[in-house]
Amino acid sequence: xxxxxxxxxxxxxxxxxxxxxxxxxxxxxxxxxxxxxxxxxxxxxxxxxxxxxxxxxxxxxxxxxxxxxxxxxxxxxxxxxxxxxxxxxxxxxxxxxxxxxxxxxxxxxxxxxxxxxxxxxxxxxxxxxxxxxxxxxxxxxxxxxxxxxxxxxxxxxxxxxxxxxxxxxxxxxxxxxxxxxxxxxxxxxxxxxxxxxxxxxxxxxxxxxxxxxxxxxxxxxxxxxxxxxxxxxxxxxxxxxxxxxxxxxxxxxxxxxxxxxxxxxxxxxxxxxxxxxxxxxxxxxxxxxxxxxxxxxxxxxxxxxxxxxxxxxxxxxxxxxxxxxxxxxxxxxxxxxxxxxxxxxxxxxxxxxxxxxxxxxxxxxxxxxxxxxxxxxxxxxxxxxxxxxxxxxxxxxxxxxxxxxxxxxxxxxxxxxxxxxxxxxxxxxxxxxxxxxxxxxxxxxxxxxxxxxxxxxxxxxxxxxxxxxxxxxxxxxxxxxxxxxxxxxxxxxxxxxxxxxxxxxxxxxxxxxxxxxxxxxxxxxxxxxxxxxxxxxxxxxxxxxxxxxxxxxxxxxxxxxxxxxxxxxxxxxxxxxxxxxxxxxxxxxxxxxxxx
Length: 596
Hints:
The structure is a single chain. The chain is of the alpha/beta class. 24% of the residues lie in helices and 24% in strands. It contains 15 helices and 27 strands. A ten-stranded parallel beta sheet has the order 10-12-13-1-2-3-7-8-9-11. A hairpin with a 4-residue loop joins strand 5 and strand 6. Helix 1 (2-15) crosses helix 11 (301-310), helix 2 packs parallel to helix 4 and helix 6 (165-181) runs parallel beside helix 8. The radius of gyration is 26 Å and the shape is globular. The protein starts with a helix and ends with a strand. Mean pLDDT is 92; it is low at 1-20 and 503-512.
């Protein structure tokens, strides 16, 4: 019955106009940055350290621009390291030679740059894979050389044997070392436990089963091996870095036929990964099932996501979305429709108990078109920043508040309407100030500041630094405040207030500027909202033209007062269009994509 009610809620959410859905202030918005086989980064294994760093900064900038607040950064691909490890060699995918010195510490660099941008960094490790069939020489310190007795060989791939206590201890030591020495926000495992078909395990673990089986069936023993390992990692993290959360992204189908109507390979009987048991025993803080399928069919997203919610045991659920299936550069079969992943994000928001989304993979947000999804995030789904959701079972203590908030309404190299905010970080206390949340509150709401700080539209930025710039385009009066944010997204009391009256800057002119917002939603399968702002009363024409320049709609053709305005347009046929705003000789254009 619960799944039926959730499914009915989802149907209502899909039918509801996109613009009607309220955006949350707290939401996990993650993206995987895959380093294995250089899927996302680095694009060049033999380039200089500075070139790789510039490339990574570019990726993080673009992820921040579309609203991502957490990156899952792969640091262990094949029992190797994208960090300075005392146990394992540097990755071939980093330097072109396993064990070679990269000239810098990629994980330390990624953490610093992510935190500057107000984004969490979760260190993503593959727990067991030793060799994915890669044809490169292994370093003398690699586990296949040091401990050949730990290796299960499947011809094409090799893994360390999950049934050996020594392997569990070794991998846990690796994880604990990363969590102890690096300022990570979380540890993340992917779905690779026992191997996938066609390399699934048969009798390769005969020796370890004979020694450690303990009277269990072989299937139950294998699941127990994974359970014990996950439990051991949880316990180690609690000691070495209690602020770091622990999450896993298992294959999206737990068991074939569960829930009813779902068919396909399952993690329980093939990979021996029992995520339901991990959740029931509080071994992980969040689960990110890889739900890389569309609505409908034998792997229906609309059935699987609510089912995972029903077994999460009050842990957080951030479904993994197969965004890679939206672009021919990353998927060679039938592509998702342009509105598929946006529908899934909206589905998550109306399904109680789902607290966010994670997208596979970063390049589909930063480089490949993926049917305009990055633009959908930037202009619609993630148009306001968000903080990751707090976890009820973790510390609820708030850090101390920032002080000395100051506002400069004429910063050096500023654009018209730009202000610069600076503040002082609080002195060290029992609870760390991981980030700072910056709020811009309209003067009409400033009388009830507590309520205003709960509205997503008033959150203008999250940063790890003590400076942030904002652009005012409507000339209004606002109050700015800043809060400190703990590792569990618990906020401090607000700082002192800084106000701006919307006055005219003698050099740059009025803060109010002619503006045409990006269409919302974009792409769209229904009505499109077009918002524009006028600095002063003007004769305005707002129209839509097709790719050949032919006029298809005139939405406004009249004198308009200064201030914000909106219009709604619905296309008759799918295609790419251009929205054109003309106001007293000035012109602004925006692209709009319409899908079926």
